[in-house]
Sequence to fold (296 residues):
Amino acid sequence: MARIGFIGVGNMGGPMVRNLIRAGHSLKVFDLSEEAVNFAVQSGARAASSVRQAAGGVEVVVTMLPVGANVREVFLNDGVLAAAAAGTLLMDASTIDVESAQAVHAAAEEAGFEMLDAPVSGGVPGAEAGTLTFMCGGSAGTFAKAKPILEGMGQNIVHCGGPGMGQVTKICNNMIAGVTTLAVSEALVMGEKLGVDRQILYDVISTSTGRSHIFNNACPMPGPLPCAASSNGFKPGFAAKLMLKDMRLSQAAAQSAATATPLGAVATAAFAMHIENGHGELDSTSIIKLIKPDVS
Ligand code: NAD
Fold:
């Protein structure tokens, strides 16, 4: 069992820490939020008073932070790379831009560390249940070392390629999710306006060629799926502002690869308008309000 330093114990990191403790590891945690640290301590972790303290004297460091700037800040300058002991295995599970992921990989390698980018899919429920999918970028050898640790937090653990390729896989997935959420919302509003009951639309399309994970399991129209965020005041779930973050990451990546993503571009603009309308804290399926503002 490993000694693990975990930095960033928010909505996702908190339950991930709890599962690592359940798996028998010993955890030291740091977060800028005292409340987040306290939650992790209640699960059995020890509190560290700084990034450096969390990263020192452990065998593995895991980070779960909001954006690329946070990850650069925590690893570079006077952070994890300066404090970790030789041989510490580094993993970043945040969803960040490919450029930041690769910059931190390069700095880690230069400092003599093995590193993996390991963003996740599955959201807070997956983090709580320990069923996350990890999309990993780094060398095959590093992946093999990290896998037993990741198995304490997830079920589907995939080596996607070299440094940054976990992030590439993650944003491809989330660009599809963003585009699909908008497409599904358009169709459901249109169908109802033309006179078909929303439950009938759901029952038919969820078993026809228009079905998808979003349509079937996160239906943006309130009602047909009682467990969906849409049927519960659009309480997240996966917040619209995080979807916009990921859509923007996809567009930055598309630009750097000189590849066309016309639907991704439209969906990114739609989420930007939706957030501008004040709905960033609602679940991402609330994008249906852009099509029908008074949907209920
Ligand atoms: P969160 O805001 O709940 O947690 C992030 C934590 O990082 C916060 O507690 C914050 O205080 C802490 N933090 C920020 N900067 C720090 C620093 N310099 N030092 C120490 N702590 C710092 O966010 P989250 O929902 O847990 O998401 C984390 C990452 O996981 C994001 O990149 C997000 O896109 C990704 N993700 C989230 C979900 C989801 O459903 N929430 C799903 C998949 C992936």
Q: What stands out?
A: The first helix runs from residue 13 to 22.
